[in-house]
Amino acid sequence: MHSEAYFTSEHNYLSYLGGPIPTVLVAEDSEDTRHLLSLELRHRGCHVITAADGREAVEAALLAHPDIILMDLNLPRMDGLAAAERIRAHGELDAVPIIAVTAFDTYGIREAALEAGCQAYLLKPLEPGALERALRNALPGFVFEDGGAHKASYGRE
């Protein structure tokens, strides 16, 4: 499990004001995709935790209690569907949104992801804006903008 957090002075200021920074678990076996998603999420002001396989994803979710999980469905050691089901089996993580991310759009996979406990389903390669829409839908209390994520109440009153 890799925990990475990068904060600009703006993020430290928001954190100091009490504005929580969302933690996102990225479960993705492709190192390049994992890195790109992490960069994009950090750019949006998120704290990012990564996992390279399904077992790592379950372990990271149980340890970190992230605000949202991006779960690749085709993971080694334990596929994303099984990992989502295991995460959902823990009551304290029941409300954590899980977004399935996959390159496969075969018959029934979307339904299987929803049945496993995922709230949304994104296809790779991600279309522009799809990740942002999914984040906004999953975490409506946060505003994701270039350079930072923060509670909607900060700077919005």
Q: Could you characterize the architecture of this molecule?
A:
The chain contains six helices and eight strands. 38% of the residues are buried. It has a six-stranded mixed sheet, with helices on both faces. The protein has a two-stranded antiparallel sheet with strand order 7-8. The protein has a single domain (2-151), classed as Rossmann fold. Residues 1-18 and 153-157 have low confidence and may be disordered. It is globular. With 157 residues, it is of the alpha/beta class. Helix 3 (54-64) runs parallel beside helix 4.
CATH architecture classification name: 3-Layer(aba) Sandwich
Helix share, percent: 25-40%
Overall, the morphology is: globular
Q: What are the low-pLDDT stretches, counting only 5+ consecutive residues below 50?
A: 1-18, 153-157
- CATH topology call: Rossmann fold
DSSP summary: helix tally: 6
Radius of gyration from the CA trace?
A: 15 Å
- Mean pLDDT across every amino acid position: 83
Lateral arrangement of strands in the main beta sheet: 1-3-2-4-5-6
Q: Give the number of domains.
A: 1
Corresponding CATH superfamily: Response regulator
